[in-house]
Amino acid sequence: MTQDGVRTFLPSDHLAMARPAITRPARQLYYSLELRSKLAHLCGSASSITPQDRLALGREAVFFLRCGAILVIISLGNCAVAWAQAPSSDSSRKREEFRNAEITYDWVTNAHGQKVRTFVTRPRSASGKVPAIFFVGWLSCDSVEYPDGETDGFGAIFWRLIEQSGFATVRMDKPGVGESQGDCAATDFQTELDSYRTAFDSVSKYPFVDQSAIFVVGLSNGGGTSPLTVGQHPVRGFIAASSWGSTRYEHMLENERVRLTRNKKLSAAEVNDSVKALTDFYSLYLIHRMKPGEIIAQHPEWKALWYDAPDGQYGRPAAFYQQLQDLNLGKVWEGVNAPVLVIHGSADTIMSQADSRAIADIVNRAQPERATYVEINDANHLLAVRKKLDDTVVPTMIQWMRKQLGQR
């Protein structure tokens, strides 16, 4: 959704719904390959036709016409197969254009066979290998593609890092978003995570990327889970912006209290009563894995408290959040061996200071002084002040990354 005119951790009511995945039966592929392998037999090649087999000129003409027809049919069939395999693409779709970087629109295929769109940029001035930034996006079904430039704080982070850092970058539109196949509203966290891991694996195929100098920048929900995306790949550092390091249950109770407190129609006593009820509600929802609608059916007295769908929340399925609750982010961040930079806006109403500080505290408890925490005064969830990205955010990120590389 949007908050103050910009994207937030919470999805909007008007989701970026995806085109359905295009599939074809395996046997269609088999028949295509079988026909291709029999082409020489059907048409006859120069080496396979003996003088004794040669026919009159008129029959040869028929033979070659027949072969030509077969070739045309198979070519058309192969074109249809290729079209069916590739996701639909709108040629009139507006694309990103950068002054200091070239962009490649690429694809990866996740474990479910879905084609997922990736966006890869390379500095125009690069003559050899360069460091790279891999982005892990937010929770909502919004694209990480920003063809209109800095339309919000997170988009400004993308654009400025691409234009100013001199690093290559890789982004991914999760399944069901933009041109990626799937249905975002039905995609659980594990499927999304697997897609990010596949996208991260794909970084190794780009010859201009220095594989020993890759940073991961996670935004909002993606900041908390970003270490999970890299698998066994070594990275030089993590940046968690506007993120969280607690449990989903804790985060939601804190978030609900903020939401209720901002409702001027509720008294402090009513807020407390609501939070008490939501404590039980979220226990059944996140820990005992019930859907919101099932909970309301058993506890109709809580109906007024629930403001979202019966089978999910913020445009994502219930399983997405239940899988987030299953995570132990304390263990995840304890195991991080790379330096960490945590950035939080003091006016963020989605992720609290405690949410973000948790990441730095966990890392520093395991490895003292390994994490750095930066608070941006008056910045909201998108690290924007008065709807514009705070000017210190990107320089802070770039300087920190260059420091890890031993650069100035």
Q: Could you please say which CATH topology of the largest domain applies here?
A: Rossmann fold
Mean pLDDT: 84
Tell me the CATH superfamily of the largest domain: Alpha/Beta hydrolase fold, catalytic domain
For the record, give the distance between the C-alpha atoms at the N and C termini, rounded to a whole number. 38 Å
What share of the residues does DSSP label as strand, in percent?
A: 15-25%
Tally the helices: what do you get? 13
Q: Note the quaternary state here.
A: single chain
Structural class: alpha/beta
Strand order of the largest sheet: 3-4-6-5-7-8-11-12
Molecular structure report:
The protein is of the alpha/beta class and 408 residues long. The chain has 3 domains: 26-85; 96-247 and 327-404, Rossmann fold (3-Layer(aba) Sandwich); 248-324, no CATH class. Helices cover 39% and strands 17% of the residues. The protein has helices at 26-37, 39-43, 57-85, 153-164, 189-202, 221-225, 248-261, 268-287, 292-298, 318-326, 329-334, 353-366, 393-404, and strands at 2-3, 6-7, 101-109, 115-123, 130-136, 168-172, 209-219, 237-241, 312-313, 316-317, 340-345, 371-376, 384-385, 388-389. The strands form 4 sheets. An 8-stranded mixed β-sheet has the order 3-4-6-5-7-8-11-12, with helices on both faces. A two-stranded antiparallel ribbon has the order 1-2. Helix 1 (26-37) packs antiparallel against helix 3 (57-85) and helix 7 (248-261) runs antiparallel to helix 8. It is globular. It starts with a strand and ends with a helix.
